[in-house]
Amino acid sequence: MSGEASAGAGPGAPEPWGETRVVGKPLPRIDAWERVTGAAVFTRDLTLPDMLHAAVLRCPHAHARVRRVDLAVAARRPGVRAVLGPDGPGAAIPWYPDREGKPTSRLLDPDCRYQGEEVAAVAAETLAQAQEALAAVAVEYEVLPAVTDMERALDAGAPAVHARGNRQGERFGYSRGDLEQGLAQADAVVELTTRSACSVHTPMEVHCSVAHWEGHQLTVWDSTQGVFAVRAELAAALGLPLSSVRVVSHFVGGGFGGKLQLSKHTVLAALLARAAGRPVKLALSREETLRCVGNRPPNRLTVRAGARRDGTLTALGLEALGTGGAYPASATSGLLVGDLYRCANVRTAHDNVHVNAGPGRAFRAPGVPPAAFALEQAMDALAEKLGLDPLELRLANLPTGSQTRGLPFTSTGLERCLREGARAFGWREARARARDAGPLRRGVGLAAGMWGYEGDPRATALVTLLADGSATLNTGAVDIGTGTRTVLAQVVAEELGVPLERIAVENADTGTTQFSPPSGGSQTVLVNAPAVRAAALEVRRKLLGIAAGELHAAPGSLRLEGGAVVTAAGRRVLLKDLAGLAERVSLVGVGERAPHPPGKLALPFAAHFAEVEVDVRTGQVRLLRLLAVQDSGRVMNALTFENQVHGGVVMGLGFGLTEERVLDHATGALLSRGWHDYQLPTALDAPASIDWLPVDPHDRECNSVGAKGLGEPAHIPTAAAVANAIHHATGVRPLEAPMTPPRLVALLARARS
Amino acid sequence: MAHQDDGSGFSRRTFIGSIGVGAAGLLAPLGAGAAAQAAREVAAGATVAVTLQINGQAHRLEVEPRWSLLHVLREVLGLTGTKPGCERGECGACTVLIDGATRNACLTLAVEVEGREIRTIEGVARPDQPSAVAQAFVDEDAFQCGYCTPGQVMAAEGLLARSPHPSPEEIRAGMSGNLCRCGAYPHILKAVERASASRRGGRP
Lengths: 753, 204
Ligand code: FES
Ligand code: FES
Known about the structure:
The complex is a heterodimer. By secondary structure, chain A is α+β, with helices and mostly antiparallel strands.
């Protein structure tokens, strides 16, 4: 593959790799031992000398106005060192900006719009003392009527969440061609409406911050996906220069999008720490993480789809209703309807309403898994109506570029995902199996997906080769558990021939590392690895220059491997024995990520194939096997790649089968307040085999490492594939997610009668 | 998992009187025997002396009767390898071994386990002396963020202690009390199988 002339990966980027030696291998992670032995210090584990513990008083009502808060008694409780109420310093910091950037609330706002909104905070010597002090805060609430059901939010007479009404902005959408005309041209048309519940990230490590002031310098250890994003927001909130705020996030116990932004508890910790003159730790409880640090909004999606007899799509329509909760947050996605299939006539319309519930946040491919659940079931229904295999219908409508953005893709692996997946899964044979007659019904289904974010290309990395031939890598990227540190170190090892165990990674500290955007949106590797590669290549050039002089060889004739320089004649000299390196002490390379390829989009694709067994007596669904086929470009580490695919699929099963935030619409109270009620998949729910198949289109244009994103696309199609398999097994369309036994039993009963 | 009688000498009624936070609210109902046991009255906020046997070392400590073992391990002794995930018995992140059996440290009061042998992740998985389970977790990449991982390792240790060569179904059931939000289950199950296989032939 190497040597081939190509457009290259953006202006100024190095030639893409051909064969690789370290990159792509199934290597255990460089920080595996810290994680496995519990030695890794997460923010939740951090204790500073003299540190106080803080807790937050939250509004017990779904909608209320705080008339009065009396902190006097609480402030005198044993151990209490600082209290903060709605009149305290910093309480008026603007919060929850709308689309125009105008704040809709304050840090501690007298208007509480969901059960759990922040009212006051206390820092004390121990957490128990802080919590006991909260019980002594006297609050007078004026309780207001609330609406928590998004389908009631626009009803006449519905309680107003905000004075200006319950719409989050005007209806918006997208259109090309003419939807109605497209439907008229179709030989078959289907329409269906799906509903998906609100799901909540609940990362294993709760959201947690430790704030510490030294004079005017603030350091915050935060369980976050993006140290630079949090620094920018925190500095703005506190009116400090960026240089006065340092944010550190060495180990993070999961994020999934819920830790991309600054949270209130982080600012509260900083304010309490300033007031007390002592470091303050504020860790949310599990219940608080289910209330107030984001969720995947519930959706009601109506899809209309039409196609000609040969399967050519003529029309796709989407009417989307979602709720970002009590404050501005996006709720639905038009990505798949607009771009997954070639279609001339498309129209989408999105309504986003306010309800009295915790605000939404980005959650692993915001809005897209619910959209896949709707669109991919509509595609299946359409295929059925046309008498086509669902695979054929999809193959008949493959895109080559983004029709919504008018740009070609650098590579489109969707066709290979579908074809190679169908072959590996044994799709045709499994599909042809006669439907079972007994109570246990087996069926297979597939769903496709894509992800639409190309990443923020502004990343810088620093690589240093040291006199003894070891190396350090400095990057601002957070490793949220996907193996970022390891994969980036592999890039250094690839270019410098330094063994992985001799590379140290310093990352995710705004005080000491280089800028990187947050680890999320499937951008971490594709943004940072090219920057690291550029830095390593600069070191490589310097190193080869030194070696060439000492070994009397042309730089281009030298190889770097096993911590040594090797000449064409096979002479090996260890890096530490190069006099020029010893003299320089270290060689530094600074690498910047090249811009995206102009006029093109580099996006990942996926297709998931599922086989399920449904017990029609109980509505219980068992996933027998799942094959995830991923076009994420180059596989950087086969072990962590596989692991991330598993994670995406398991989370997709949660979305599809078990996870549901439950609100009591009568009182607005959150009922799913822990993992007992908010049910995550367990080891018993994951299928015995989750197979994965990477499809690498050898994309030489996307960036200098050839990798596209993985975290999102590994998750997007899962629930839809399971839904289609359930339909294949039983003949009923499960249009509500999660597809719980009670829901399926009701559907099956209705189908029988 | 059933709570066993702890023999600590404190009646549950005494420390229920001092509940603020923590595990006490989740206790099993009083047995007649336990209620009848002589109790030392402890004022709210006051501490009592206990000696805990942790990873082979005796720790003489002053603890509040309401403190969970999880709290004592992390906040008093700095053993932060045992993780809080829910602090109400739902996730297994805090799994430790008490006399060789897995137990949620968040649902265990420190005063309950005086005289018992307590093992935490720090006692079983050290880079210089890797247990077969820890080594298998590293080799199989049986984690993503790693936050649930010490608890998974302890659950696997407990499972293999009571059933050295479990079937795949036994492994799934045995590990099902430990949530992994990252969804690393397939690798976790493989790691437990690998650890079990590597112990064949009597190796520890
Ligand atoms: S922290 Fe103990 S079970 Fe979750
Ligand atoms: S590895 Fe992240 S929760 Fe299990």
